[in-house]
Please model this.
Amino acid sequence: MNNLNELRAKCKEIYEKKLSRPRVVVGLGTCGIASGGDRVMKAIQEEVAAKGLDVDVDFTSCIGMCYAEPMVEVAIPGMPSVVYGNIFPEKVPQLLESHVVNKKPVYEWAYIQIPGDATPLEGIDVMEKAPYYEKQVRSVTARLGRTNPESIEEYIATGGYEAFEKCLSMERQAIIDEIKKSGLRGRGGGGFPTGNKWQFVYNAQGDKKYAVCNADEGDPGAFMDRSILEGDPHAVLEGMMIAGLAIGADEGCIYCRAEYPLAIRRLNLAIAQAEKYGILGDNILGSNFSFRIRIKAGAGAFVCGEETALLNSIEGQRGMPRVRPPFPANKGLWGKPTCLNNVETYANVPNIIRNGADWFAQMGTEKSKGSKVFCLTGKINKTGLAEVPMGITLREIIFNIAGGIQGGKKFKAVQSGGPSGGCIPSEHLDTPIDYESLAAIGSIMGSGGLVVMDETTCMVDVAKFFLNFTQLESCGKCTPCREGTKRMLELLQKICDGKGELKDIDTLERLARVIKNSALCGLGQTCPNPILTTLRYFRSEYEAHIVDKRCPAGVCAALLVYVIDAEKCTGCGACLRACPAGAITGEKKQPHSIDVAKCIKCGACITKCKFDAIKKA
Amino acid sequence: MSACACEKVDLTKEDAALAQLLDQYRDYKGGLIPVLQEAQNIYGYLPKEALQKISKELKIPFSKVFGVVTFYAQFHLKPRGRYIARICLGTACHVRGGAKIFEAAKEHLGVEAGGTTDDLRFTLETVACIGACGLSPCMMINDDTHGRLTPEAVGEILDRYE
Model:
């Protein structure tokens, strides 16, 4: 059998040569590009060409600090490499002049430094010690923001495909045993032990088997799979190849949502590169293992993230779930045994094989091993991507990593698990993050989205938002979900409109219970979670809407009245001019007032008032 | 190229591309969705004739093709413009003359709500609120928000989008 030694030596040479040169690296993940990274890239290229600078211009993916995008790293050999944030094109000339030409970092724009072998600079946080990274581990996300995701050479030079090569000389059962021993569980939300799943497919009878990757990340507020696909596509391919080898599949399929064009482009490129080097294809490295991977782009349906709906969609059908059993492990794609895992699950596999199951199992809690990538969004100071060991508390993630609540406001709840998850209140902030603990407080781990809400968020409105989402995305196959989501949404709308009755709460609870127990797939079974958890932890808000006809957070427009505080109003007239409905009257320099009957509650006056004189009550 | 193509003298460039696409996917298991995606790239939407051809050539009942098309949000049965102009008719825009803006846009483009101009430049849609009430009346063209509109300004703004 051949090996990758020669190729690996060549790749290491290429990579080391790159590291030995001065470099300017721009973060070009989707978030980087959306905040202007491509314009920064262009500005850097133009500046480098115009001044004839001796520096390489390169790009990487998302390092995780979305709040500081666009990010640019300047690496001068012999000096710590510095990662700058909020770099816009107009800052480029000064940055290059100072750091590249004069070797003087621009301290006020620096976010973190990566010293390598050099002496750390004073006054810039070293990455591992920076508040954002201190509590993180970087395992699945290790290459994100550090290597060029479109270079297979860099992947191989940093240990890539070592695990696969090792597996080629292992017994198939031994690979599965290693995964079992590691304690890895499905990262897509369900948390099913991955090794057991592989064992079922291994044991299943069939002339043909498939390894399928679920990259249909549809939860609003979740983007970790996108970041992994964009930042380390080869790791996902390698994980799938190892799975294919272990279960006896020769074909893999990645079902990626069409809304991720950059991820699809980088995956296609990665597949072509791996085929070119003979890592994917027939009789890989002279073994008798052959494996091909193809990509299926989704067509815009949230329910296709459900495994059986996903399989139907790959087969060219409407993406509706199938009745289980039979499970995909026995009858999956085209009726053949199929191993179906999520992006992050596959991406963990090469690390487990390379570093050993014990290394993985020492991270995390008794039943939830390893690390998990979370997406931090909502009303926090630092939005972004964070990989943490299982068992860390929500408080550590929200207050240490994400830097607490924006504008010094009060924390109210954190929503985990997308539309299938629940809202967790402050009294449970010290709950360790693992599958069982989150389930015990009514939420789920889910795929890893964490949406933080502050005191200005109305929990009834949040429940309504998620129900609106699931109702629109319900595929319509089973009655509990099709009809139930609609009825629950109507009740929530009624409450938000100020027409609710106390018995509506009981009806909601009963509906939620029935739907949970009778819906066909995960979408329906979990869609009542946002309602059940908000009712459990924020019942008083529902009651305020119903009994007092009042929205305590000041969100539900039908329940609000805008008033002007005569003490604070200076009569400047800014609100009067801003009001689209002509509802505000008043003489110049005299306190103004709002005609409640004419007011359309658009909020234009509040935005305009400089004296904080307009209140929602 | 399929055999029947030579008989049709008025075969358009799009039809030829579809025929070529179908040849490529004829024996491909589960090819319906990729075929629809690429057919939509060819035509900009999914015309009935194209769906009929896809159904016939891939030997999938038309009802099933139609079922798949209407299931996924990505597929459109009517042509859509390069630019989607969404006129806000929310409460704030309404009282500040959003309807007049809508009339002006309709007149300028010559289409009704949901309609698309013949040159496939614009699709005109209405929206309940885009959250820019302070700038009312307003509209969005693709991802750009335009506020403080007057009926006279609408045509001029639309003309900027080629």
Observations:
- Chain B has seven helices and four strands.
